[in-house]
Amino acid sequence: MSSKQKNQGEGNREADKDYRSSTRDFVKSGKVSDSAEKARDAVEGAEREDLKQAEREGRKPARR
What we know:
The protein has 64 residues and is an all-alpha fold. Helix content is 66%, strand content 0%. The longest helix has 17 residues. The radius of gyration is 17 Å and the shape is flat.
C-alpha cells in the first residue's frame, strides 16, 4: 500500500485484486485441507459455543 492511497469506496478494485491474489496463493499453497479440518474441529469441538456466541453478536444490529 502506498502512503498516498486513494479511497475507492465500495467496489475497490485494488482491494479486490489483492484479495483474489491472496486467495489464489493460499489455494496453490496446499494448505486448504488443513485449514478446513481445523475449522471443522473448531465448529464441532470445544470452540463451538464461543463461535456461536460470536455469531450472535455479529448478527445484532449496530448501534446508531
